[in-house]
From TrEMBL:
InterPro entries: DUF4287. This is DUF4287 domain-containing protein. It comes from the Bacteria.
Length: 70
């Protein structure tokens, strides 16, 4: 049986393919931003880096959940 990635991380392969940056680089950008609210970060990624809403949302959700969980 194969293990299928679920949730925001399921978007990661398509994000890397479409935008040409590794996920770790996107997460570093999010962490280095002075913005802290989910939608502020999503809108920033869309406006400044050209990400689509779903991709930006997945990156922000995953990054913020890591920060809360650790």
């Amino acid at each position: 049986m194969t293990d299928t990635t679920k949730g925001p991380a399921s978007y990661f392969p398509s994000i890397e393919k479409k935008y040409g940056r590794p996920i770790t680089e996107w997460k570093d950008l999010i962490r280095s931003s002075r913005l802290t609210k989910h939608m502020e970060l999503v809108n920033w990624l869309k406006a400044e880096h050209g990400l689509g809403h779903g991709h930006a949302n997945a990156l922000v959700a995953h990054t913020l959940s890591e920060a809360r969980g650790k």
